[in-house]
Design goal:
about 230 residues; mainly beta; Porin; twelve-stranded antiparallel β-barrel
C-alpha cells in the first residue's frame, strides 16, 4: 500500500504499495482521504541491495486513488536501474467499523535492477473490521502477467493490524504467488501526528530461506489536508 518489489522481486507484483498503508504489503480496502494526497517513503535493506522508495498518491474525486512513483536501487554500492509503479484503485464498498470493505486495484510495475518493460497486474483487496477497528484483517487475491517469463501468476496476501495503543499498531502478514514459498513480514506503525505523519519499521523473510531472503525496512508516511 502499503504497495512492491525486490523486497524480493515478488513484492511489487503482489502489492504495489499503493497497498495498505505502510508498512504492509497486503493492501487494504481504504483510500487516501477524499481530496487529499499522501507520500509513502521508505528504505529497504536486503542483503547487498539498498532501495529507496517514494510513492505519492492522490484521491481527487473521492473514490479513485492514483499512485505514481518508484525506487532507486544500489547493489554493493553500485547504482542499478530504478523501479516504477503506476496504479489506480477504487472501492466498491468502503470499510466500516465492525464491517467489511472491498475494492479493485489495477496497475503496472517494474523491478529495481531490471531492464524489462515490467508487469501488469490487478488484485481485489478486502478488509474486515473487528473490536471497533482495534483488529483489522486484510486479504488480497489477484493476477499478474510476468512478461519476462511469459507466465501468468495468481497472487495472494493475508495480514492484520492490531491496535496496541491509540497511536501504535502491530502488523503481521503473509503473501505469495501460486508457485513458490510464501513470504512473511512483521512490523510496527506509529503516528507522530495522528492522521498526518506516521513512521514504521518491518522485518521480513521467505519461508524456507531465512538466511538469504531476509530484509529490514524503515518508512515515513505524510498525509496532506484536503487539497481538492
Amino acid at each position: 500500500m502499503r504497495y512492491l518489489h525486490l523486497l524480493p522481486p515478488l513484492l511489487i507484483l503482489i502489492a504495489p504499495p499503493c497497498q495498505a498503508a505502510r508498512p504492509m504489503i497486503t493492501d487494504d480496502a481504504r483510500l487516501t482521504d477524499a481530496g487529499a494526497c499522501q507520500v509513502e517513503t521508505w528504505a529497504h535493506l536486503h542483503n547487498r541491495q539498498r532501495e529507496w522508495w517514494a510513492l505519492p498518491a492522490c484521491n481527487p474525486g473521492g473514490n479513485l486513488e492514483l499512485t505514481l512513483g518508484g525506487a532507486l536501487a544500489w547493489t554493493d554500492g553500485r547504482s542499478d536501474s530504478g523501479a516504477t509503479v503506476a496504479q489506480l484503485k477504487t472501492l466498491f464498498r468502503p470499510l466500516e467499523t465492525n464491517g467489511y470493505g472491498i475494492g479493485l486495484a489495477v496497475g503496472h510495475a517494474t523491478q529495481p535492477g531490471s531492464s524489462h518493460t515490467g508487469n501488469p497486474y490487478f488484485y481485489v483487496p478486502a478488509s474486515f473490521s473487528f473490536l471497533d477497528d482495534r483488529l483489522v484483517i486484510h486479504t488480497n487475491l489477484g493476477y499478474t502477467r510476468e512478461r519476462e517469463n511469459r507466465e501468468n501468476r495468481l497472487t495472494w496476501g493475508i495480514g492484520n493490524e492490531w491496535q496496541m495503543r491509540s497511536d501504535t499498531w502491530l502488523i503481521a502478514e503473509s503473501y505469495g504467488q501460486d508457485k513458490g514459498r510464501p513470504f512473511v513480514q512483521f512490523g510496527l506503525r506509529h503516528w507522530i501526528v495522528p492522521g498526518h505523519v506516521q513512521i514504521d519499521t518491518t522485518y521480513g523473510n521467505q519461508l524456507g530461506h531465512f538466511g538469504t531472503q531476509r530484509w529490514f525496512s524503515v518508512g515515513l508516511r505524510l498525509i496532506s489536508p484536503r487539497l481538492f
